[in-house]
Specification:
By secondary structure, the chain is mainly alpha-helical. It is built from 9 helices and 3 strands, in the order αααααααααβββ. It has a 3-stranded antiparallel sheet, with no helix packed on it. Helix 4 packs parallel to helix 6 and helix 5 packs antiparallel against helix 6. The longest helix has 18 residues.
């Protein structure tokens, strides 16, 4: 019996001009964590639909996962230009900028993500953007601003406490790369 991936490949082969079929195949590669083939697929979609914000975002995330941050950043900036109020695009841009050491720029992207998520009524995304912004502000030694962001994140998603200090070291927790979830 053919696999889902094989069926999707056949669909693309039999409908070579179908950007939707290519998009679905690229998304399946992404779901399977085959980020290189996902990036190739999303790039193909962008050849026929250059202003597709979702394809630009997914392409950027696949590029980021294959350690091509500069290309990911440019794709996300383009998606942001097309849809300035897209919370997920702005949050992903913040992640990429932060990973490149551009912390001040990441703070701005996370602020845009939080604002857009608030307007879109997406509290989980807003909470994550505020938490990430707080973490960046903390690294920039803007501790009062960081504390405000953490408080806002907790108000939105109060099912966990995030700690970034060494005070959490004596508490049973899960390490999240410098942050701990209690």
């Amino acid at each position: 019996m053919p696999t889902r991936l094989a069926l999707m490949r056949d669909q693309v082969r039999y409908q070579p001009g179908s950007a939707d079929a290519v998009f679905e195949l690229a998304y399946e590669y992404f779901r399977l964590r085959n980020y290189n083939d996902a990036a190739i697929g999303f790039k193909r979609v962008l050849l026929t639909r250059p202003n597709d914000v979702e394809a630009l975002n997914n392409y950027a995330v696949a590029l980021y996962r294959t350690r091509r941050g500069d290309l990911a950043r440019e794709s996300l900036r383009r998606a942001g230009d097309l849809a300035a109020g897209h919370a997920v695009v702005q949050r992903n841009l913040g992640v990429v900028l932060d990973s490149q050491g551009r912390v001040a720029d990441a703070v701005v992207a996370y602020a845009k993500a939080a604002k857009a998520a608030h307007e879109e009524r997406k509290p989980k995304i807003e909470s994550r953007a505020r938490d990430a912004r707080g973490y960046c502000l903390e690294r920039l030694e803007k501790l009062d601003d960081a504390a405000r962001e953490y408080d806002l994140a907790y108000e939105l998603d109060g099912d966990c406490l995030l700690y970034t200090s060494d005070a959490a070291d004596d508490t049973p927790c899960v390490d999240l790369g410098g942050r701990r979830i209690i």
